[in-house]
Amino acid sequence: MAEEDKNGAAEGLPPPPPVPPDFTPVKSEPEPVKKKAAPRLPMARRGLGNKGQKIQILTNHFKVNVTNVDGHFFHYSVALFYEDGRPVDGKGVGRKVLDRVHETYDTELAGKDFAYDGEKSLFTIGALPRNKMEFTVVLEDVTSNRNNGNSSPAAADEGPNESDRKRLRRPYQSKSFKVEISFAAKIPMQAIANALRGQESENSQEALRVLDIILRQHAAKQGCLLVRQSFFHNDPKNFVDVGGGVLGCRGFHSSFRTTQSGLSLNIDVSTTMIIQPGPVVDFLIANQNAKDPFTLDWAKAKRMLKNLRVKTSPTNQEYKITGLSERSCREQTFTLKQKGKDGEGDEITVYDYFVNHRNIDLRYSADLPCINVGKPKRPTYFPIELCNLVSLQRYTKSLSTFQRSSLVEKSRQKPQERMQVLSNALKINKYDAEPLLRACGISISSNFTQVEGRVLPPPKLKTGGDDFVPRNGRWNFNNKRLVDPTKIERWAVVNFSARCNIQGLISDLIKCGKMKGIMVEDPFDVFEESPQFRRAPPLVRVEKMFEEVQSKLPGAPKFLLCLLPERKNCDIYGPWKRKNLAEFGIVTQCIAPTRVNDQYITNVLLKINAKLGGLNSMLTVEHAPAIPMVSKVPTIILGMDVSHGSPGQSDVPSIAAVVSSRQWPSISRYRASVRTQSPKVEMIDNLFKRASDTEDEGIMREALLDFYVSSGKRKPEHIIIFRDGVSESQFNQVLNIELDQIIEACKFLDEKWSPKFTVIIAQKNHHTKFFQPGDPNNVPPGTIIDNKVCHPRNYDFYLCAHAGMIGTTRPTHYHVLYDEIGFSPDDLQELVHNLSYVYQRSTTAISVVAPICYAHLAATQMGQWMKFEDTSETSSSRGGVTNAGPVTVPQLPKLEEKVSSSMFFC
User: Fold this and answer.
1) Same domain assignment for residues 622 and 664
2) Where is the composition biased (Polar residues) (predicted)?
3) How far apart, in whole angstroms, are the C-alpha atoms of residue 862 and residue 857?
4) Residues 181-225: pLDDT tens digits?
5) Tens-place pLDDT, residues 346-366
6) Residue 664 sits in which domain range?
7) Which of 661, 681, 707, 750 could make an S-S bridge to 637, C-beta 3.0–4.6 Å?
8) If we measure between CA atoms, which residue out of 275, 273, 283, 289 comes closest to residue 411?
């Protein structure tokens, strides 16, 4: 009715079509509709870069041909049940059950092969005969502990007679399973072809996932350990001992990737950590670094062994360890039922049973606990020396510093060696024999893909006297003064019981500083730790040292040089940094002076100079200032990273760090803001944090205000964001959740201000490597690749900015998700390359842009503060966990005003 009136009023002018759009807004008055903008999507490539010298490069992508693009993958969901209808919850048994279904019901399945992911999904090429199918299969000898049902093997209800034992054991060991397979979805293979044209969809991701599942299943059939898309064979040739009962196991990563030149299979060497197989006792001795089994800490051993799988001799049965016996083997008793008698049995010790009833000689187990493989209510004990750890069991705890360096040393490979290993991997894997890949019409080339790279020239750097061009990504400060040296004054040395010639160290610092242009005054004093506190807890040692310093110094020092007794993992480091930076605002440098030479002293001075507000070197274009898009318009550069607790620590808060540039037009000076957030959360949730109508307590406000104050009261009109550590599946969240928060923080400061953004992700954990054909060396620093193996549509490129000195260079994969500023490909690539040369801690180009490295350092350093929190604080915050609410995240103490915008992390 209303419409007619309206048209009537318009006196029969043109027909209605234009009216509805005109009319709907009247109905939906409220504003919010405008707010729901379409989500931002990663941008398309703007073109290729041209700068640099062309270079031919090989990469570990192998071309894949797909001929069957008209077919369909059919996705079925799989449900497994025991015969009594209970769902099967245990992992690991699924593959065995489905293999058995495949063998037993071949005709019902119309002879089809399928790809099973080991859990709830199964894929076939073309449809199965029916949309819902049910099968029952029987598996003998299911060794997974979950399936032992009521059988209680060794030291339980059996008589001593061996043949009886076998007869008794059998019926328990075979199990029936019911399998339901029901149709879920149909995925056109055409989707793969679409993805290669840059039209990615749900379907294309699913289709590629099916191909990856086929690879996983192919490896599982060869008895490999599977870790995501990596496969590890049980071959001792691939094991390296890294200490502590842990082995590095070398295997392969392989996954299908869509690239500009079509589909490729990316194969790389990969390493996972496994438990040293063999006698349990040998593992425990290595793990605890003990002399013999009698000095082991059994509480620790119990935690370490839980859920590991062992084979027991002499029967070679496989079980899962559920715990250890309370008492030793010769004291631990159980009830041995007599054959033919119901109910009662004799109490007997485990030792007595194995030695006298089973005639097994025990050499050293008598006084050690037994291994329990039974249920809590029905334990089943084995003497420890009859238990051998099964091979290929993952070790998921974090490695010690010693283990990590041992692993790096033993697993690195020069480029040529790595190429050889990868070529062999292709041969070993026999993908052409995989029936499912054949059915897809997939064939895989055995040649490394050749791509054209470019080597960007290194940027010119400026020091105190002259400009120079780094060679091979490296330079030094021999006979050079720093570009902006500071003064080291009002300072002192504190020594936490480190052995070294302190007077010699001080005179070296003064002498070396003078050559670099840094005026180093004589220190006020050297404070030696009193021997009585050497064994005290770290917090106490730090407190006592501070009392000493405060009692002797006339006022607060500007700088403290701290000598630590051990180089890595020194537990004084966290509390010391926290005390200096959060409570007193004192700049501090920690060193563990083992081998002190000129180079060492220079490196220490570079860090101190940067922390005290100086600058060691800078880009000539930054001084000129002549950086495209950055020097003409106030521009802030952000580096963002989140670091998580090591695996196995689920309740350690994650730490988000945002590093921001200051004193525009500089791109070499930065500050950091660091916050804790919920464990394992990758998105930064404190960028904007409204506390009230006028209060924003977020990270961005701090960064923006500091930029404004340090850049002559200018607001940044360009904001360039480098984000580390997110996978492709999270790009949209960075673009829509994090970027929205940053925009909100800007609007909160000034409603009318709308800066332009560029968002770039840096990834290090991918598997693309580059090699020079016929050259044993790594690709030269500055090598950039933006064609052939890059994404068919999106704007990404690989850059090796650094000189790989050991092993094979790992390029950084940069993804440009968003660019309102409007860089040309060459200008943007050059900016990223330049930012690899402004890292003040070292005299080399680094592998990823400096702001990201700094964010990483800041998060790691402040993570150390948390580690040694006074235990009462953390326990109250964790002890208060009820099932209802999440863990409260303890907040980090704030940096003291005087150091809050310093490069304390340098």
Assistant:
1) yes
2) 143-153
3) 9
4) 999 999 999 999 998 888 888 889 999 999 999 999 999 988 899
5) 888 999 999 998 999 899 998
6) 616-768+811-868+889-905
7) 661
8) 273
